[in-house]
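Deliverable D2.4 — example input (structure tokens):
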């Protein structure tokens, strides 16, 4: 597992290798498990908030970036074959309310935070809960009792009671009536995206067959392992017309809420 560090970014000298940069989470690990039989793929990992920045330095790489990064990186080409999407209980981000608390005036976000978490939180609460809480990043090492949180990434499965949480993916899916495309594979290099599309075969059916073995290798807590297996039908890696429409609906959602001033065409390949 190789980190992509920027400012110190890691540059790969062997141009024969396909460079694939991903966030480090359970869902990217499931995807990566299906690449073991493919020669000449170099996997790199970074925080979700830095993945698009990586592509400014590793211009021939493909990265699994938060989908809303595209509003600030409209030059990127996007795979029409693969993504990371949800439409139910599974999610990369979960909402935790304090039990018995009536008013939600402040919300803390922690974990592997991306632009999706910040922007979509600002939309979810007015739309779904008729509230507009102040949103603050929580840099502390541990969460505090009595606070309301959105937690992004694997911290959900190691330190939180996610079974009592609200799936952010489910909330977004209900808003747009499509799956929530959380991450897309993108690159400034058109050829790199086309090579990626040609190299990797459709994955959803194979992942369904292999999921128990994959999760055992990840050494998850039994409760997390069971939860993912039970809800695997709400997780998608293959991108279809439905997911491409979903990406466009996300952009419309951001536009209608005044977060961006104009619509744009996503460069699917």
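Example output (designed residues):
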């Amino acid at each position: 597992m190789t980190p992509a560090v920027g400012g110190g970014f890691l540059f790969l000298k062997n141009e024969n290798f396909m460079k694939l940069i991903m966030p480090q989470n359970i869902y990217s690990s499931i995807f990566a498990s299906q690449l073991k039989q493919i020669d000449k793929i170099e996997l790199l990992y970074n925080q979700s908030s830095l993945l698009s920045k990586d592509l400014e330095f590793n211009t021939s790489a493909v990265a699994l970036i938060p989908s809303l990064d595209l509003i600030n990186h409209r030059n990127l080409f996007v795979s029409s074959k693969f993504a990371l999407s949800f439409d139910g209980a599974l999610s990369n981000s979960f909402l935790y309310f304090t039990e018995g608390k009536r008013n939600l005036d402040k919300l803390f976000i922690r974990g592997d935070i991306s632009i999706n978490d910040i922007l979509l939180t600002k939309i979810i609460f007015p739309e779904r809960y008729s509230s507009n809480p102040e949103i603050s990043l929580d840099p502390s090492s541990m969460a505090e009792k009595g606070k309301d949180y959105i937690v992004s990434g694997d911290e959900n499965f190691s330190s939180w009671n996610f079974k009592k949480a609200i799936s952010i993916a489910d909330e977004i899916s209900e808003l747009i009536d499509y799956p929530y495309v959380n991450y897309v594979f993108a690159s400034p290099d058109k050829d790199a995206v086309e090579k990626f599309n040609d190299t990797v075969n459709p994955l959803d059916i194979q992942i369904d067959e292999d999921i128990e073995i994959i999760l055992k290798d990840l050494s998850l807590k039994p409760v997390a392992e069971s939860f993912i297996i039970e809800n695997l039908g709400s997780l998608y890696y293959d991108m279809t017309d439905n997911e491409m429409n979903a990406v466009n609906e996300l952009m419309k959602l951001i536009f209608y809420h005044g977060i961006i001033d104009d619509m744009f065409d996503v460069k699917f390949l």
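The first strand starts at residue 2 and ends at 3.
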